[in-house]
Design brief:
CATH superfamily of the largest domain: GTP cyclohydrolase I, C-terminal domain/NADPH-dependent 7-cyano-7-deazaguanine reductase, N-terminal domain
Strand content: 25-35%
Strand order of the largest sheet: 5-2-3-6-7
Shape: elongated
Radius of gyration: 19 Å
Number of strands: 7
Bound molecules: zinc ion
Structural class: alpha+beta
CATH architecture of the largest domain: 2-Layer Sandwich
Distance between the termini: 41 Å
């Protein structure tokens, strides 16, 4: 549960910690502003992907479904800095599909938490397996990490790519090749 009062206290302390005066004009509303913002960017904490994935539709053919270039924003749990990029999702139905917007919603549920990219990728894949029960799922994330680009080794534009394969995508490499072909790679 998000505790806005606690966040406000923490941000005031943080400002003092970096040598700022939390009472000065430009900063006096900052703790409250951040607390309200956290409610949004960490809103996935109070959400379950099931809400978005419980409504499925029957289909006759089980051709691969791909939703690509889903923009996401998440927060690195090691530095509390954003990482953001694109998610690409493929699944092979087993008689059931979900509305396409629900795939993007599922990405948001898990992105709006403290994350590491590998875990985010796996959680999206597992939720789709659990709720759509397809023959297989492949999730690919490409993201830029601010903790890599604005500090440390400072490599702007560098991308971290992660993949999670479930079901038939684990056993049949030809399916993954088809995914990359359909992605235009
Ligand atoms: Zn980081």
């Amino acid at each position: 549960m998000i505790d806005e009062k606690k966040i406000e206290r923490a941000i005031r302390l943080l400002l003092e910690g970096i040598g700022e005066d939390p009472g000065r004009e430009g900063l006096k509303d900052t703790p409250n502003r951040i607390a309200r913002m956290y409610r949004e960017i960490y809103g996935g904490m109070d959400e379950d992907a099931e809400v978005h994935l419980s409504r499925t539709f029957s289909v006759g053919n089980n051709e691969m479904v791909i939703e690509r270039e889903i923009t996401f924003y998440s927060t690195c749990e090691h530095h509390l800095l954003p990482f953001h990029g694109k998610a690409h999702i493929a699944y092979i139905p087993d008689g059931k599909v979900v509305g396409l917007s629900k795939l993007a919603r599922t990405v948001e549920v898990f992105a709006r938490r403290l994350q590491i990219q590998e875990q985010l990728t796996g959680q999206i894949a597992d939720a789709l397996m659990e709720h759509i029960c397809p023959k297989g799922v492949l999730v690919m994330l490409e993201a830029e990490h601010m903790c890599m680009t604005m500090r440390g080794i400072k490599k702007p534009g560098s991308q971290t790519v992660t993949l999670a394969r479930r079901g038939v995508f684990e056993s049949d490499p030809a399916l993954e090749e088809r995914f990359f072909r359909m992605m235009g790679r």
